[in-house]
């Protein structure tokens, strides 16, 4: 009897986890778009921790890295990797600046289509404009805690040359970006999770320039 009770409790627990992870089509898409735009329009800056997991077919285990991301309206983003090594990527609307532990290189956003496309996508997600993207076929899903937006590139010669699909998860509590999944043409994919998010703190423009 005790074993039977344990089995029942176990399967109930598994069923609960599956139910929480199940996504269905968004019931009211118009309301989702309105609320996403309304909530994100007040966000002028974000300071958050991130964890990145790079899944590669040639490796048994994913490559893990972590750090801090800073965003400032309208289009400034800084990725500061702190583990397992120090590395910074800055996108300020005009330039892409890479600081590899003191070795700084800068080039124009237009010279790297992949960086430019991904920066636009990240900024549009933060600003709530991702549902108006014309470069993707967009599908929206929801469960109890999250909205999931799947973006499949329409033009296979631009961002579609790099990614087969990008998935953005939004917290239902505050409509902020919870995580991003990027699926590459070669079968690899990258998952980035954002935590400890702080909104509308003062962030100096100086950090988005080459030091």
TrEMBL record:
Keyword check for Glycoprotein: no
Keywords carried by this UniProt record: Lipoprotein, Signal
Source domain of life: Bacteria
Gene3D superfamilies reported for this sequence: Lipoprotein localisation LolA/LolB/LppX
Pfam family, one: LolA
InterPro entries according to UniProt: LolA/LolB/LppX, OM_lipoprot_carrier_LolA-like
PANTHER family: OUTER-MEMBRANE LIPOPROTEIN CARRIER PROTEIN
Protein name: Outer membrane lipoprotein carrier protein LolA
Organism whose genome encodes this protein: Marinigracilibium pacificum
């Amino acid at each position: 009897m005790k074993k039977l009770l344990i089995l029942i409790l176990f399967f109930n627990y598994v069923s609960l986890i599956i139910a929480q992870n199940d996504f269905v089509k968004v019931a009211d898409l118009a309301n989702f778009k309105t609320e996403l735009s309304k909530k994100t329009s007040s966000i002028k800056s974000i300071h958050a921790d991130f964890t990145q997991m790079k899944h590669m077919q040639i490796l048994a285990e994913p490559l893990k890295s972590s750090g801090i991301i800073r965003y400032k309206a309208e289009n400034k983003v800084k990725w500061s990797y702190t583990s397992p090594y120090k590395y910074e990527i800055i996108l300020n609307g005009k330039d892409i600046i890479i600081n590899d532990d003191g070795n700084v290189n800068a080039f124009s956003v237009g010279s790297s289509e992949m960086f430019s496309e991904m920066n636009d996508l990240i900024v549009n997600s933060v600003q709530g404009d991702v549902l108006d993207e014309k470069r993707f076929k967009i599908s929206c899903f929801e469960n109890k805690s999250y909205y999931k937006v799947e973006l499949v590139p329409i033009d296979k010669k631009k961002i579609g040359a790099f990614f087969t699909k990008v998935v953005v998860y939004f917290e239902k509590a505050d409509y902020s970006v919870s995580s991003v999944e990027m699926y590459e043409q070669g079968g690899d994919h990258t998952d980035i999770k954002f935590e400890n998010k702080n909104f509308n703190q003062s962030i100096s423009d100086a950090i988005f320039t080459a030091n």
